[in-house]
Amino acid sequence: MRAFVAARSRYAEDRFAFAFGRSVRQYVVLGAGLDTFAYRTRFEGVYVFELDQPATQVWKRERLVDVGIAIPEHVAYVPIDFERESMLVGLRGAGFDFSAPVFFAWLGVTPYLTRDAILGTLEVVAQAMQSGSEVVFDFAARSSEASDSEASQRSLAARVAAIGEPFKSAFDPTAFAADLSALAFSLVEVADTSILNRCYFAERADGLCLRGGNMMCVRV
Q1: Which of 24, 27, 94, 128 has the highest CB neighbour number within 10 Å of its CB?
Q2: pTM, whole model, 2 decimals?
Q3: DSSP label at 130?
Q4: How does pLDDT run across 77-131, given as a tens digit for each residue?
Q5: Whole-angstrom Cα distance, residue 48 to residue 66?
Q6: Measuring CA to CA, which residue among 141, 137, 122, 140 is closest to residue 185?
Q7: Residue 45's pLDDT band (cuts 50, 70, 90)
Q8: In the 8-state DSSP scheme, what is residue 112?
Q9: What kind of fold does domain 2-219 have according to CATH?
Q10: Residue 214's beta-bridge partner residues?
């Protein structure tokens, strides 16, 4: 899990580096939690919108004060109840520019959402965002084959269910990619466990690697 938390953020930020090269200057963090991108980014001219539950944002801002991290001018906090409020309304109220492309980082969230909620959010992005906009997110993979990855996923699912936060979705990566292509995304790219290991863990001397984990990148 430690390796995957690091890898998913690195993958998202590597994808954003390419998007930045295409002049994308808006970065939206869906379910921001304690994400730190806004406080350490070196990309000039990027504006970050952090969307999360109001109580979580209050707690995060308290923690930032506790550890002496200043809130930069290029970040906007967008309190939102994802169950009842529209992401578009929240962004509009925070000064989001709907005429420009955007990069969405959606990390550590989708396994706790239903299939309909995930596809509904991505459909909104496909319909409402400008060409060139991207979404990067992790997802739980479903497989009929016995493997270390599948065993790891089952173990994690049991642990999160035990603390009252059960996983609500899992996907076959190939079928999931086809579903997203049907939403008219121009790019649908899966980075599975083997790809992420080759990218980020192949040269490590300590044996640290992923035993599971999948990323998806889609572009409008």
Answers
A1: 27
A2: 0.90
A3: P
A4: 999 988 788 899 999 999 999 999 999 999 999 999 999 999 999 999 999 999 9
A5: 22
A6: 122
A7: very high
A8: G
A9: Rossmann fold (3.40.50)
A10: 139
- CA-based max dimension of the chain: 49
How many CB atoms are located within 10 Å of the residue 159 CB?
Answer: 11
Tokens of 165: 């936060």
Task: Tell me the CA end-to-end span of the chain in Å, nearest whole number.
Answer: 30
pLDDT value of position 179: 95
Confidence of residue 167 (pLDDT cuts 50, 70, 90): confident
In DSSP notation, 184-210 reads: T-SEEEEE-HHHHHHHHTTT-SS----
CA distance 52 to 151: 31
Q: Answer yes or no: are the C-beta atoms of 111 and 83 closer than 8 Å.
A: no
Q: For the chain, what are the domain ranges?
A: 2-219
pLDDT band with cut points at 50, 70 and 90 for residue 160: low
Please state, in angstroms and rounded to a whole number, the distance separating the CA atoms of residues 193 and 4: 9
What pLDDT does 149 receive? 57
Phi-psi sector, 125: left (phi>0), alpha (psi -120 to 50), beta: alpha
Report the relative pairing of strands 214-219 and 187-191 from DSSP bridges: antiparallel
